[in-house]
Amino acid sequence: VLSEKPTTFTITVTSEAGENDETVQTTLKFTYRERYPDETPLYEIVSQENLDDNDTVNIIKLLEQQAEENLGMVMIFTLVSAVQEKLNEIVDQIKTRREEEKKQKEREAEEEEKQRFHGTPVTIENFLNWKAKFDAELLEIKRKKMKEEEQAGKNKLSGKQLFEMDHNLDTSDIQFLEE
C-alpha cells in the first residue's frame, strides 16, 4: 500500500517458471477512484522484467478490457489473475519461439550436411575424364617409386661384392660351423 487517500498499492505478478527457470514479471500500480467499483481503478505498469514493449501494450489492453467487463464488482483479483494468465502465455510463446528457432537451425544444418555430400552426378564422360586423371596420377607415382628403387639399388652391394671387399666373410661360416 503506497497511500490511503486515495488508496494506492502495487502488486507484483510473476509468471510460472518457463524453460531454464526463466520468468516474466511485471509490477502493477492500482489507485482506487472515489466511486470504485462502479468505475474502473487507475492502473499502470510500474516495472517489468523480460517483457518487450508489445507485451506491455497487450497487458494494458487486457486490463482495460477486464476492467470494463467487471464494472460494479470488486475487480482487482480478476485483473491480476488475467495478467497472470497473460504472463504465462508470454512464457509459452517464448518457449515455442525458441523451439522453432532450434528446429530451424537443425533443418539448416541438415540441409548444409546434405549439400556437402551431394556431389556431381556420374556420367560416362565424367567417369572417363576422372579415370584418365587417376591413371595418370598412378603412373606418375609408379615412376617415382621406380626411380627411388633404382637409386637405392645403386647403393646396395651384391653378395659377391661384399665377399670381395671383406675376406673375413670367406671363413666366417666355417668358423661358425666348427663352434
TrEMBL record:
Tell me the domain of life: Eukaryota
Q: Which residues form the signal peptide?
A: none
Record-annotated RWD domain positions: 1-90
Q: Which GO terms describe its cellular component?
A: cytoplasm
Q: Biased-composition ranges for Basic and acidic residues? A: 98-116
Q: Region labeled Disordered — which residues? A: 98-117
Q: Which UniProt keywords apply?
A: Acetylation, Phosphoprotein
Database matches in InterPro entries: GIR2-like (IPR040213), RWD_dom (IPR006575), UBQ-conjugating_enzyme/RWD (IPR016135), ZC3H15/TMA46_C (IPR032378)
Function of this protein?
A: Protects DRG2 from proteolytic degradation.
Family statement drawn from the similarity comment of this UniProt entry: Belongs to the RWDD1/GIR2 family.
Name assigned to this protein: RWD domain-containing protein 1
Which species expresses this protein natively?
Piaya cayana (Common squirrel cuckoo)
Gene it is expressed from:
Rwdd1
